[in-house]
Design brief:
CATH superfamily of the largest domain in chain A: Zn peptidases
Strand order of the largest sheet of chain A: 1-2-6-3-7-17
Keywords (chains A, B): Cobalt, Hydrolase, Metal-binding, Zinc
Order of helices and strands of chain A: HHHEHEEEEHEHEEEEHEEEHHEEHEHEEH
CATH architecture of the largest domain in chain A: 3-Layer(aba) Sandwich
Number of helices of chain A: 12
Pfam families (chains A, B): M20_dimer (PF07687), Peptidase_M20 (PF01546)
Cofactor (chains A, B): Zn(2+); Co(2+)
Oligomer: homodimer
Family (chains A, B): Belongs to the peptidase M20A family.
CATH class of the largest domain in chain A: Alpha Beta
Number of domains of chain A: 2
Structural class of chain A: alpha+beta
Number of strands of chain A: 18
Mean pLDDT of chain A: 95
Radius of gyration of chain A: 23 Å
Largest interface: A-B, 65 and 65 residues
Low-confidence stretches of chain A: none
GO molecular function, one term (chains A, B): metal ion binding
Strand content of chain A: 15-25%
Helix content of chain A: 25-40%
Amino acid sequence: MEEAQRKVRAYIQGNQSDAAKFLQRVVQEGSVRGKESSAQAVIIEKCRELGMNMDIWELGGEELTNHPAFCSDRNNFVGNPNAVGVLPGTGGGRSLILNGHIDVVPVGDIDSWEYEPFSGKIENGRLYGRGSTDMKGGTVSLLLALEAIIKSGVTLKGDVIFQSVIEEESGGAGTLSTVLRGYKADGAIIPEPTNLKFFPKQQGSMWFRIKIRGKQAHGGTRYEGVSAIEKAELILKEIRELEIKRNSRITDPLFSEIPIPIPINVGKISSGDWPSSVPDIALIEGRMGVAPDESMENAKQEMEQAIEKVASLDPWLKENQPVVEWFGARWLPGDIEVEHDLVTVLTESFTEIKRARPVIEASPWATDGGILNKIGGVPVVVFGPGVTKMAHDANEYIELNDVYEVAEIIAVAIMKWCGTENDGT
Amino acid sequence: MEEAQRKVRAYIQGNQSDAAKFLQRVVQEGSVRGKESSAQAVIIEKCRELGMNMDIWELGGEELTNHPAFCSDRNNFVGNPNAVGVLPGTGGGRSLILNGHIDVVPVGDIDSWEYEPFSGKIENGRLYGRGSTDMKGGTVSLLLALEAIIKSGVTLKGDVIFQSVIEEESGGAGTLSTVLRGYKADGAIIPEPTNLKFFPKQQGSMWFRIKIRGKQAHGGTRYEGVSAIEKAELILKEIRELEIKRNSRITDPLFSEIPIPIPINVGKISSGDWPSSVPDIALIEGRMGVAPDESMENAKQEMEQAIEKVASLDPWLKENQPVVEWFGARWLPGDIEVEHDLVTVLTESFTEIKRARPVIEASPWATDGGILNKIGGVPVVVFGPGVTKMAHDANEYIELNDVYEVAEIIAVAIMKWCGTENDGT
């Protein structure tokens, strides 16, 4: 086992620049929602090179779309498949899912980017581009770990199921589809950008939309209308108060280092279509965090009650109730014990390589781990390279050394978890 | 003269239902910006029927676009002309411009409309539709007045210049083009919806856009970003305070009945493109009122200083100054004495027909009167049918009786102002 570890780690250390080039290719195929296919093709090509048994399919079917956890406003998955590569073990070991998502969020304001958002430019050990951190860097760590094990001739006892899924950023329909297709395992690792922390508990989250009515009028007689923007400001204030209230209840020590454990993020507002008119509709869209031990339903109710409260205090909103919708994305929370054997195996691997203890926290964001955990019954640890704050930001980048180091830690963890038949050939 | 008046007024009273049908046709040709041609065609057809000398042209040329008062972000006027019809007098009388705009503002939220926005539906003496009040009703009053004079065989001494212009809602390039083309006169009436009040002073206004920067981050770690929406809320608050400050200075008695004499209307906000991201850009667009005796430059400076002030108090905005732009529409204020002879003539006409004194106020909004007045040197009174608060609102409508009554008042005023050769034939 020690010999196998040595070979595998040496392989990773000797193939860093190829891994960086591979990550560059994956980032350059910008895979925003609905355009995942070309990046997915690069991943699939690599899996085929490694000799994995590939299962490639487009999402669909009533079992998926009627499932209570299905959540997507996308009506067309054609041409943008999920991809799963299986490395069958010889038997007698524990199976492991390695899950990464290929979809990336939009680039935002293009002017805020120093380099072209899908450049994949490498400078001072950092690789830049939308998706580099969230989470193509982590996916490359997974593939580099598997490549090292395979190329070193190490034979695993347990099955490894590598998954490259779509739709993580929009509600997890990709991972839900893998579960319904039958992919389950004794454990799972999701290398989202945790900055090498372990997240055995993951926050859930869901998207909301609040529609606020005003009354149109000419801007020059704006006192004859009711500004939907002014009414939206009342709602924004109430949302911040609700966030404070909900977070004051969080006592789990895994959240102790997180400034806002379960944030409510207002990500979008739009109102009005003419500078000289009083706007009559405002739409607010955002993302509500859900505690690992909280039900989605409870969180929804708290939001709806808060909006009802603010409406009850304003004469106009009392007569024109804002409407709360839950739409698009929804991620279930995930929750395994800190004492779970998967955490132990990862901690051992981490400690051997980093010569330090890992930080174990609750995740500040939701992942597909909630679906694997709550629907698939799979124990999940989220652990990967990349700094959380770069995800979704302009000038997103990843430190390449973190990608290589996580590959080593995960490679060793795979061997420990699945068991090995030999020390490599 | 009394006989001429009797005939002309009788004509208007006898042709009300044809006038209503004509207004219906004009409203049904919804003429939002860039699509003014078909409504304009209906107007032109009517002018030709009345035997006016028509001048129809598309806006353009350097004299227009380089003019300091030119203000438009529109780069294509092809196919959507201005139209002017001249009714030459026999000489020795005063000339009069009758100016109406054909463009209408967007319909806003379609669900707020009881009838289809361009239905032109008539019910209980009201005609419904976008543009009915602002200001196709007034334009029909003008044409009905002219038709009555012409069909009654009354010959005028002074020239009447009827103008149906584009771009009033977006900065007045249409009326500016008439001035530069040489159309000037001893007086002008603009039948915007004043609810039959006289507005010898008109508020100016201009559009602003404020760009506010935030810092993108994942919504789950929103504390690592800076929400452009939250920073925009500070700006919105400051704009309301500036509005209060500016209005507290207005002492002109013509404004005494107006709740907010020179409003600052925020008509639009947009920020963010993803519910789970912290938004990094917010755009606010609005319309700032300018007092009749105030310079546009002074108003601009006050806004810019207010935004600088709020930025100086916020550490993030201090480093990331919001940017104020003045774009798109700009309307100059207009200002003639209450004692001007045009006001007197209109007052006499009004009193004869309504058996009551008119209300004389300052306008709560800007009109093309500012350009006619400040650039063309033409004394302007704004006076027309329709209720201000219906302009730009959903379910916009006009009381048809007001259209007919204004036609009578304006017809009599035309005869008094221009002088008549005969009593009709």
